[in-house]
Design goal:
CATH architecture of the largest domain: Sandwich
Helix content: 25-40%
Protein name: JmjC domain-containing protein
Strand order of the largest sheet: 1-11-8-13-7-6-2-3
Distance between the termini: 15 Å
Cofactor: Fe(2+)
Keywords: Iron, Metal-binding
CATH class of the largest domain: Mainly Beta
Number of domains: 3
Number of helices: 12
Number of strands: 19
Pfam families: JmjC_2
Organism: Actinomadura violacea
Length: 396
């Protein structure tokens, strides 16, 4: 069973209220829980990913001393008649670079490895934000990236081995990916130094300088969950877009008019913004709008998706692939919003839709029984969602 990262590892409400985005903290594993992340990514699984995927830079890269190693140092150029040429990593050359101190990085591994994908779906559902997971493998005490900061909050999961960390803290509060200035000078001295062992977790807020290196003599494998942030700039950008519904916001700026006309226009714009920002529900409205527009993760359902109708098979696995779907209940109806689409069903369908939105693994038969309908009736509803791309059926 997949571990509940927020509750079982990070401390649930305490992490959300006190740590996330505010301070760094280590969440140590008990001696009996050193293998609690082993099911996310074992070395054989990493080897299969490297063997069976066409991983080109920057998706797969090697880094040492803060610099990216040229692909010519560990790849061989391959050409094809019907595909673009690519630089194929050579296992023996990659291994040599790793022996010499390089760190191997595999970006967005959740898109390729179902156990990590399932964890990401749960994180996105809980935190209401986009999550990307990168895998890092290293063997020596040489730092792959040097002292640096990230423009997003980070949760680090030490899968195996050990990693030495130095935390320096922030120099610019809440830096952005698109910012007006950047601070490239790290603090001189760290505020904390420690070693993560297998099973330990770490949170580092965005903008906090840090550096990491493997403990000499044992391979280190860790996952970094990058959490996209929701900033005031994001909310204001959404709010300005939403104000396109107002004729006065769509009207021309009166730049050729007299001062009284310009003053009246500024007052009207200020009033529009103030009314929206003073709404106590504005933050949740913004998050819900982002949730309902958020896309899907995976969802291929061959051969079933090509057929005219799903099979009336009670054991058919069904899963939602829109992790941030929103469910709204009314007296007579239930409305599902996901991936920019909306469906309204009768109240009888509520248990079925609620089970889907929960993210739990389920089957056609379980969904039908929960809604007290036949599997044939459940298929009628699920066919709509399958053709809209927000559920998948069959084995993942």
């Amino acid at each position: 069973m997949m571990i509940d990262l927020i509750v079982e590892v990070l401390g649930g409400d305490r992490f959300l209220a006190q740590d996330l985005g505010r301070t760094h903290r280590v969440y140590p594993a008990s001696p009996a829980a050193r293998d609690r992340f082993a099911g996310l990514l074992a070395w054989p699984a990493m080897n299969r990913l490297l063997d069976t995927h066409r991983l080109e830079p920057p998706r797969l890269r090697l880094s040492a001393d803060g610099a990216t190693i040229p692909t010519s140092e560990y790849c061989q150029r391959r050409t094809y008649r019907r595909m673009p040429p690519w630089d194929a990593p050579q296992p023996h050359l990659v291994a040599q670079q790793l022996r010499d101190g390089a760190t191997l990085v595999l970006d967005a591994i959740e898109e390729m490895h179902p156990p990590i994908g399932a964890m990401v779906n749960a994180l996105e559902r809980h935190l209401r934000t986009c999550v990307q997971v990168n895998a890092y493998a290293s063997w020596t005490a040489k730092e792959g990236f040097g002292i640096h900061w990230d423009d997003h909050d980070v949760i680090v999961l030490q899968v195996s081995g050990a990693k030495r960390w130095r935390i320096y803290g922030p120099t610019r509060p809440a830096p952005l990916y698109r910012d007006v200035e950047f601070d490239d000078t790290p603090p001189e001295h760290p505020i904390d130094e420690f070693t993560l062992q297998a099973g330990d977790a770490l949170h580092v807020p965005r903008g906090w300088w840090h550096a990491a290196a493997a403990s000499t003599g044992q391979p280190s494998l860790h996952l970094t969950c990058g959490l996209a942030t929701h900033t005031g700039v994001d909310l204001l950008s959404w709010l300005v877009d939403d104000l396109r519904a107002q004729p006065s916001a769509r009207s021309d700026i009166p730049h050729l008019a007299d001062q009284d006309t310009q003053r009246a226009w500024r007052h009207e714009m200020s009033k529009l913004l103030a009314e929206r920002l003073n709404d106590p529900a504005v933050i949740d409205t913004y998050l819900t709008a982002r949730d309902t527009a958020y896309g899907v993760r995976g969802g291929f359902s061959l051969p079933h998706a090509v057929h005219e109708r799903l099979p009336d098979d009670a054991d058919l696995p069904v899963r939602l692939v829109a992790p941030r779907a929103v469910l709204r209940s009314a007296e007579q109806t239930v409305t599902l919003e996901a991936a920019g689409q909306r469906w309204t069903f009768t109240r009888q369908a509520a248990p079925l839709v609620e089970a889907l939105v929960s993210g739990r693994s389920t089957t056609l038969g379980v969904l039908a029984r929960g809604a007290n309908v036949t599997t044939d009736q459940a298929v009628e509803l699920l066919d709509q969602l399958l053709r809209s791309g927000i559920i998948a059926v069959g084995e993942a």
